[in-house]
């Protein structure tokens, strides 16, 4: 019998995208309303950094997350994306898939 088995990882990935879209929508709305800066909002009000595939070196590093290169690269990409969609009527350009 051929049965599909949903693993814990599969379950996480199934719900990951909608959850992140919701969190990015929230971050977008916070920014649009002037409720802080993007770095602070992503770090303190979303699980953005929880889902980052940190390297083994990053995980073993004593450096705080904010001093890691991947953190800065991703934050720069988030910032560029937000600036490109700041004037949009909704958050989809920032929070939607393939943004």
Tag the structure with descriptive keywords.
99 residues; mainly alpha
What are the SSEs and their pairings?
Elements: H1 8-32, H2 38-45, H3 56-60, H4 69-85, H5 92-95
Tally of separate helices: 5
Spatial separation of the terminal alpha carbons: 40 Å
- Report the count of strand segments: 0
Radius of gyration, CA atoms, in whole angstroms = 16 Å
Q: Roughly what fraction of the amino acids lie in strands?
A: under 5%
Shape summary:
globular
Task: Give the tally of structural domains.
Answer: 1
Report the sheet with the most strands, covering strand number, pairing sense and barrel closure. none
Uncertain segments: none
Instruction: Summarize model confidence as the mean pLDDT.
Output: 85
Which structural class should the secondary elements be placed in?
A: mainly alpha
Helix content: 55-70%
What is the H/E string? Answer: HHHHH
Provide an overview of this structure:
The chain is globular. The N and C termini lie far apart (40 Å). By secondary structure, the protein is mainly alpha-helical. Helices cover 60% and strands 0% of the residues. 10% of the residues are buried. The mean pLDDT is 85. The longest helix has 25 residues, at 8-32. It has helices at 8-32, 38-45, 56-60, 69-85, 92-95. Helix 1 (8-32) packs antiparallel against helix 2 (38-45). The protein is built from five helices and no strands. It has one domain.
């Amino acid at each position: 019998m051929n049965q599909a088995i949903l693993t814990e990882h599969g379950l996480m990935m199934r719900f990951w995208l909608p959850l992140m879209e919701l969190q990015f929508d929230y971050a977008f709305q916070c920014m649009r309303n002037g409720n802080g800066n993007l770095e602070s909002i992503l770090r303190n009000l979303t699980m953005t950094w929880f889902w980052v595939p940190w390297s083994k070196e990053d995980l073993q590093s004593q450096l705080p997350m904010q001093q890691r290169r991947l953190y800065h690269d991703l934050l720069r990409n988030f910032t560029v994306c937000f600036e490109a969609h700041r004037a949009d009527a909704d958050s989809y350009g920032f929070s939607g898939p393939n943004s």
